[in-house]
Amino acid sequence: MGFIFSKSVNDRLKAQQEFMATNSRLQLERQLLMQNQMRERQTAMQIAWTREFLKYFGAFFGVAAVGLTAGAIKKKNPGLLLPIVPLSFVLAYQYDMGYGTLLQRMKGEAENILDTQSTLLELPKGPLTYEDLEKLRRSQSKFFIEK
């Protein structure tokens, strides 16, 4: 009789462990999906911001280029065209970020760093541990009493 009862308990325990493992896996998958969705949305917002900024900066660049060119011709001073050079670099960068391949190139370089130069990614003093956090918390806490 005891054998039948213990077998039933063991079967239930095993089923419960399998359920918990499946549930943990599902929860982790959902968390990963959510984090990826948040990352994608943040990246989309950054690209959208860049494209919007490009519209305003492009208008500013156009007005500045026309004004500086007109001033350089009127005053016969080609030095007035000098500000167009750095402004054109900023415009080109913003265009590449918003509509070009800058993000793909950055992704490729990031993958290269992860694959070949992972030592650059190490944190000073190594990864943070629970003991480090506890030590810091104890040193900053006014209410903690060590026993």
From TrEMBL:
InterPro entries (UniProt xref): Plg-R(KT) (IPR019319)
GO CC annotation: plasma membrane
GO biological processes: positive regulation of plasminogen activation
Signal peptide: none
Pfam families: DUF2368 (PF10166)
Keyword tags: Membrane, Transmembrane, Transmembrane helix
Transmembrane region(s): 53-73, 79-97
Protein's recorded name: PLRKT protein
